[in-house]
Amino acid sequence: LDLSNCSLHSVPPGLAEATAAIVLDLTENPLTTLPNGSFLGFIHLQSLAVPLPLECPGGGDAWQDVTVDRSSRLCQGQRNPCNSSVELAWPCPENSVCAPDGPGLIQCLCENPFHGYKCLREGTFPMLLFGGILGAATVSLSLLLWGTQRRKAKTP
């Protein structure tokens, strides 16, 4: 994806939909910062060129090779932060596994059969119980309203 020399002053909002990009060029743009969530989901990104004043997203540790020339910085070979020997600041909770989510970013995915907040719930969502209670409440409320409001309905 070549966005070089497009007069971008900030990261375009549509860039979030290009998570399948492997190569991205943002050079020759008057960018001043790269917001923290700019490359969330860019797990396939292997080569990123940014203007010289900017650092590689995720820092130098998120990339295998950072090359600087006179006008740009080239970040190559995105590293998997889950496989690093550096201790994670926010380790994943019990019953979950670490997965990369972009340069220097991780996400914690629940292992089967766990789900929910911090992967604390085991099993599947009780769909039958939820549907039964919702259906009973809807029918009861409908009958109540029909019974109390039908006398106000005018008949021709």
Automatic annotation (TrEMBL):
PROSITE patterns named among the record's database cross-references: EGF_1, EGF_2
Organism of origin is Mohoua ochrocephala
Question: What InterPro entries does the database record attribute to this sequence?
Answer: ATRAID, EGF, LRR_dom_sf
The name of this protein is: ARAID factor
SUPFAM superfamilies in the record: L domain-like
Keywords attached to this entry = Membrane, Transmembrane, Transmembrane helix
Q: Which Gene3D superfamilies match?
A: Ribonuclease Inhibitor (3.80.10.10)
Which GO terms fall under biological process for this protein?
positive regulation of osteoblast differentiation
Sequence intervals crossing the membrane = 125-146
Q: Which residues form a coiled coil?
A: none
- Taxonomically, the superkingdom here is Eukaryota
Per the database record, which ranges form the EGF-like domain? 108-119
